[in-house]
């Protein structure tokens, strides 16, 4: 995201491809949103929900190393196996 000036594309325009390529397929002409502010939210679901309701989509980082993450396909991912110091995936919170 930092390499694309905070700009975002839709998943349909930039689909997940696993480890099939090391190439970036970012296309600035297909951007639909831009990150405008970075803050650290508290670890509190109600406060995150309130921020999502007030500001819209919230970007965050997660640890993808738990084995159950490999089988995740949709919905809310919830595990107690995450490591707050091993963040390696960026995702968006769009509400719940």
TrEMBL record:
All copies of domain Peptidase C1A papain C-terminal, residue ranges: 4-96
GO terms for MF: cysteine-type peptidase activity
TM regions (residue ranges): none
InterPro entries per record: Papain-like_cys_pep_sf, Peptidase_C1A_C
Record's keyword terms, sorted: Hydrolase, Protease
GO terms classed as biological process: proteolysis
Pfam family, one: Peptidase_C1
Domain of life from the UniProt record: Eukaryota
Protein name: Cysteine protease 9
Organism: Tritrichomonas foetus
Gene for this chain: CP9
């Amino acid at each position: 995201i930092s390499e694309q000036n905070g700009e975002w594309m839709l998943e349909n325009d930039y689909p997940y491809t696993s480890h099939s390529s090391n190439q970036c397929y970012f296309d600035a002409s297909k951007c639909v949103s831009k990150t405008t502010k970075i803050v650290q939210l508290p670890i509190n679901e109600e406060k995150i929900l309130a921020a999502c309701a007030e500001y819209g989509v919230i970007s965050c980082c997660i640890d993808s190393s738990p084995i159950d993450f490999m089988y995740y396909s949709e919905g809310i991912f919830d595990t107690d196996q995450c490591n707050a110091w091993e963040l390696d995936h960026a995702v968006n919170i769009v509400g719940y």
